[in-house]
Amino acid sequence: MLGRCAALVALLVGSVACSSAATDSAGLVGANGLGANALGPPLATSAEVGRWVEEKTGQCDEVAPRTMQEFADFVGPLRAKLYAPYVAEWATCAAGPYERLGLVVFQREKLKDFQQAWQGAMASGEVSDNPDFGFGNGFALSGTLGLELLGLHELRCTPVVTGADVGHTLPAEADGCTYVQKPGHHH
């Protein structure tokens, strides 16, 4: 298993240029370059996300569209409750150690609502940690191992401690949430 994980990390090494800070039709980025649009290329369908993963890793060539019921089974009932209202579509593919890597596309206009809902769930004790996906521009991957090497970010809705395994950071759409990229990807 460790060898397979190392192989995925090696495959995930690639450069993802960050996009310029332009405002899209949903108003997700201001003149200061904040939000999802600053996280790289915008991907709007699970097929696009699958092609992007395949380009970067050489894997994920068989993208299988999935239903929202399958999403609930995949992430569990609590996570489904928190993610599903904001998901436009999702699919899976095989990549590295992941037999079923989740390719999740968010409803772009609801990213702030998703982040605020997650903050509320943390404040109420419904969840105890940040979302467990690797986030890009309008999409996320369910795996976590090596995804920072793809240029993906964690979404943290808890205070980010400076110097605590933190590399590149950008404010997210909701106040108090931040996109954080672990050291290792040269931004």
- Beta strand %: 15-25%
Strand line-up in the sheet with most strands: 1-2-3-5-4
Biggest sheet statistics: 5 strands, antiparallel
Order of helices and strands: HHEHHEEHEEEEE
Share of helical residues: 25-40%
User: What Rg do the Cα atoms give?
Assistant: 15 Å
- How far the N terminus sits from the C terminus, by CA atoms, comes to 29 Å
Instruction: Give unreliable regions as ranges.
Output: 1-32
Average pLDDT figure: 80
Task: Give a description of the structure.
The structure is a single chain. This protein has 187 residues and is of the alpha+beta class. Helix content is 28%, strand content 19%. It is built from 5 helices and 8 strands, in the order ααβααββαβββββ. It has helices at residues 2-12, 46-57, 68-75, 77-83, 111-124; strands at residues 64-66, 87-95, 98-106, 134-135, 139-141, 154-156, 169-171, 178-180. A 5-stranded antiparallel sheet has the order 1-2-3-5-4. The chain has a 3-stranded antiparallel sheet with strand order 6-8-7, with no helix packed on it. β2 and β3 (98-106) form a beta hairpin. α3 packs across α4 (77-83). It is globular. It starts with a helix and ends in a 7-residue tail after the last strand. The relative contact order is 0.18. Mean pLDDT is 80; it is low at 1-32.
